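Entry:
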Amino acid sequence: MSYIQLNMPRKRKTSADCDLIREYQRNWLRDKLKNDPEYKERHYANRQKRAETNRKLLKELKENSPCSACGEYHPTCCMDHHHLDPSVKEKQVSKMIEANSWTKIEQEIEKCILVCSNCHRKIHAGLLTLVYPSG
């Protein structure tokens, strides 16, 4: 593992610097999980607790929102987040539940609309077109 100098002489870190820092953090976590059983237990317990909380919050959000396309309320298992601009999509919201904070999930949800699974498939098949308000 290489040493990363965090006090860099330039004002901004470049993308390459950030990649090196992320790599260092991943390696540190991998080593810690491999060599410290107590840390590993706490890490996975916290991750599971965070995932349960995130699932609960996401379920409440879906229960209280109708489909943006057809306006009907559906069971939470039938509601999907559709990214309005796929180029700014970081991850699928459902894939963020276990590893991300609720704040980060909310930021991703702001890039989406909530649609039922039928309307979502129609959007991707080109059978349903979304019209966005100007402004």
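The chain has one domain: 15-125.
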